[in-house]
Amino acid sequence: MKGFVPRLRALLATTRSPLAVGLDPTPETLPTEWRAKAADSRDPDTVVELYRRYLIGVLEACRPFAAVTKLQSAFFEVLGWRGVRLFEQCCREARDLGYLVLADAKRNDIGNTAQAYAQAFLEPQRTYAGTWNLPEADALTVTPIFGDEGNRPFLRAASEQGKAVFFIVRTSNPSSAQLQALELRDGRRFDQAVADLVEGYALETLEPGFGYAPVGAVVGATRAEELAELRARMAHAILLLPGVGAQGAALAPLAAAFDAEGMGALVPVSRGLLQAHAEPGAPKDWKEGVAKAAEGYARAFQQLIPAWS
C-alpha cells in the first residue's frame, strides 16, 4: 500500500502546484441560473443534485492545476442525510479524477469515540454484515486539544490505511490569538506547543526517503508573522495554509512553507474558485471561468517556488 506522502509527491510532480480545491456546497456558490432554480425548488433532492453537478464540474475544471480537494464537512452535514450522500459522491468522483481527498471536519474526542471518528473518515466502514467500501477520505483535519488520548486513534488509523492527519495549529481568523497566542508557563505560545507536539508525531511516522510524514498542520496563511517560525518547528509536517482568496492572505510569505522541490505545503482555495463565475469579466461558461481561476492561482503559486517557476 502506497503511503500518503509518496502519492502526494507523485501528483504534485504532474500539477506543479500546491492548489487544493475547496468544495463548499452553499447557495451563493452556484451559477446564477442554477441558483435561481435552487431557490424556486421545494424539492431538496433537486437542490442537492444541482450541488452535485456543480461540484463535480468544478473538480473536472480544476484537475490540471490541483492534486488535492478539500471538502468542508459542515456544508455537507447541514444538508442532512442527502449531504452525507453528496459527500460520499464527491469523494468517489474526486478519487476517480485522480485527486487526493482531504476531509476538513476538525474532529476529535477520546477513546472509542475518537476511534469512531477516525473510522468514519479514514477507514472502510465495518458492520456486522461485513465491510462497506465507502469512498473514505485520504486525510482528515483534527483538533489536537485532547492530547495523545484523542490524537493517537487518528494517527493509528491513518498509518494503517496509508492516509494522513492534519492537526489544527494556528488558524487564519483574527480572534485566534485569544487562545492560540497565549503564553504558557514554559515560555512557549500555545500554538508553538501544539507545533512541537505535531513535529513529534511527524518524527514517529516519517516516511523514509520522502522528508515528510503523513502528519500535517493547519497554519493560517494570514499568519505571515508566525508561518516561518512554525515551519521551523514542524520541519517534517506538511502544512495546510488556508486564507488565500476570500480572506485576502498575501502569497509572498507562503514561500517559507515550501522546500526547494516545491514540497511541504498545500494551499486550499474555496470561494476564489467556486465563485469565479461571478467575477467581473469572467467567461460566460462557468466551468471555463473556474478553470481560468484555478490556472491563475496555480501560476501565482508557481512564482513562489523556484523549482516550478
Strand content: 15-25%
The CATH level-2 architecture is identified as Alpha-Beta Barrel
Distance N to C terminus: 32 Å
Number of helices: 12
Order of helices and strands: HEHHEHHEHEEEHEHHEHEEHH
SS-derived structural category: alpha/beta
* Average pLDDT reading: 91
What does the main sheet amount to? 8 strands, parallel, barrel
CATH topology: TIM Barrel
Give the total of beta strands.
Answer: 10
CATH class: Alpha Beta
As residue ranges, the low-confidence spans are none
Number of domains: 1
State the CATH superfamily name.
Aldolase class I
Q: Determine the fraction of residues in helical runs and give it as a percent range.
A: 40-55%
Strands in their spatial order, largest beta sheet: 1-2-3-6-7-8-9-10
Radius of gyration from the CA trace? Answer: 19 Å
Shape: globular
